[in-house]
Amino acid sequence: MEPLRNTQLYIGAIVLGVLALIVGVMFIANILLGFHPTRAYITFGVGIILLLVGIVGMVSTRSRG
User: Fold this and answer.
1) Per-residue pLDDT for 2 more than 70?
2) 48 found inside a domain
3) Does the pLDDT at position 65 exceed 60?
4) Cα separation of 59 and 51, whole Å?
5) Which residues, 6+ apart, have CB-to-CB distance to 53 below 8 Å?
6) I need a surface site. Which of 34, 48, 49, 55 has the fewest CB within 10 A?
7) CA atoms of 54 and 51, how far apart (whole Å)
8) 17-60, pLDDT tens digit by residue?
């Protein structure tokens, strides 16, 4: 099994960030998961952090190589 490359890790962070944002919207809009405002804001925060890590990581690896 080959080790993951940095770009794959950053793409994974972006995907998880998008999923966290979707779950946050579902918490706020009371779709399937119920209305949980605290959990919604936490998932929004985690999603934004993961998106930023993924985007900054992709930009930094592309500028080096």
Assistant:
1) no
2) yes
3) no
4) 12
5) 10, 13, 17
6) 34
7) 5
8) 999 999 988 888 888 777 778 888 999 999 999 999 999 988 88
Residue 40 maps to a domain = yes
Does residue 1 lie in a domain region? no
Token pair 């999603």 is at which residue? 47
When divided into structural domains, the chain yields a total of: 1
Quote the pTM value: 0.79
CA dihedral (61, 5, 24, 52) in degrees, to 10, reads -10
Between CA 9 and CA 44 the distance in angstroms is: 20
pLDDT at 39: 87
60, 19 in Cβ contact below 8 A? no
Position 17 in a domain: yes
